[in-house]
Design a protein that fits this description.
By secondary structure, the chain is an alpha+beta fold. It folds into 2 domains: 151 residues, Collagenase (Catalytic Domain) (3-Layer(aba) Sandwich); 150 residues, Jelly Rolls, CATH 2.60.120.560. Helices cover 14% and strands 34% of the residues. The protein has 4 helices and 17 strands. The protein has a 6-stranded antiparallel sheet, with no helix packed on it. The chain has a 6-stranded antiparallel sheet with strand order 7-16-9-10-11-12, with no helix packed on it. It has a 5-stranded mixed sheet with strand order 1-4-5-3-2. A hairpin with a 3-residue loop joins β4 and β5. α1 crosses α3. The radius of gyration is 22 Å and the shape is elongated. It starts with 14 loop residues before the first strand and ends with a strand.
Length: 322
């Protein structure tokens, strides 16, 4: 499969290495990582857990060694973490925090990988990692937005209760036609590219589409503004990634196996949340935009970034929710 970029830290691994302990306890953390170590200490303290490296030391450094595509790994028992520099520089701030928290979970909290999932397939822990089975390797930990607090809680307390978002109850019928004010309607177009104004915080976008089965590479929907956008990327013969684009960097937060046989996409932002429906079935819900909606784009392309002629948008409707 060409040109598909999978999650950078989809296969986090760690190693059990045994050997002589250092006689001298040292705290040596590259300046690129220090902020995230302090965040770890602060998040632990907020949950009644004291982190003190004075008795163990800590070494976090860059390494050119890549093991099974991992972004980083921990030498368990030695408080030694190595990070792949090329991958680190490509990560968002949130992804960097997740990576260091994961590795410190191994090195400081003595946690192993935990690959349990909720009914909606989301991971129960940010300690998810190798070995992964089948499509599990495609599903990232949604360490983003309102879900971050739960994952921090569970990191320091494995008995943390399941969050409400593990069993969402949103339906397409929660909003009636009477609750919508039509702003834009387009029909029979090869793509959507809109710059709406004065949409408000609560809105809904509906896309009736045709020909996605014949798209050779990707069908991509993005919405937001210059500083923040959300995306839905449907890859032929693979599935769908949902995520956020911030400051030019991607953060994938969910994977769904849908790759064809799709006729309708609905995005609904209401009361601080965004809901995504495929053919009127809830696929995922996440944060609302932190900025005003000013750009909407939907198009299908081949591997050379040329629009797919087999794809069309039969109807696009943008509504304000009252």
């Amino acid at each position: 499969m060409n040109n598909i970029k999978f999650p950078l830290f989809g296969m986090l691994v760690f190693f059990l290495l045994f050997g002589c302990k250092k006689d001298k306890i040292e705290y040596i953390v590259d300046s690129d990582f220090e902020e995230y170590v302090q965040r770890f200490i602060n998040e632990a303290a907020a949950r009644g857990v004291e982190i003190d490296f004075s008795d163990t030391g800590l070494l976090i450094e860059y390494s050119d060694r890549i093991v099974d595509g991992a972004s980083g790994y921990c030498y368990l028992g030695e408080h030694h973490i190595v990070i792949d520099k090329s991958e680190w520089t490509a990560l968002t701030d949130t992804q960097k925090e997740y990576l260091l928290f994961h590795e410190l979970g191994h090195c400081e909290l003595d946690r192993r990988h935990k690959n349990d999932q909720f009914e909606n397939l989301l991971w129960e822990s940010l300690m998810r990692g190798d070995p992964l089975v089948g499509t599990q390797q495609n599903i990232p930990v949604p360490y983003y937005g309102f879900r971050k607090n739960y994952y921090r809680d569970e990191l320091f307390n494995q008995n943390t209760s399941a969050p409400d978002w593990s069993n969402p109850t949103f339906t397409i019928d929660d909003i009636s036609a009477a609750d919508k004010e039509l702003l834009i309607e387009r029909q029979n177009a090869p793509r959507v590219s809109e710059a709406p104004a004065a949409v408000g915080e609560n809105f809904e976008m509906e896309f009736q589409i045709n020909g996605i089965n014949g798209v050779p590479f990707i069908t991509e929907l993005t919405w937001g503004s210059g500083s923040q956008k959300f995306f839905v990327r449907i890859y032929r013969n693979f599935g769908t990634y949902i995520g956020a684009l911030e400051n030019g960097k991607d953060q994938q937060v969910f994977y769904h196996p849908t790759k064809d046989d799709l006729d309708k996409i609905t995005v609904r932002q209401k009361d601080g949340l965004t809901q995504l429906f495929f053919d009127d079935s809830l696929i995922y819900h996440f944060d609302e935009l932190s900025v005003a909606l000013s750009n909407i784009k939907l198009e299908a392309r081949n591997g050379s970034d040329v629009l797919a002629p087999s794809f069309s948008i039969e109807k696009f409707i943008l509504s304000k929710l009252l």
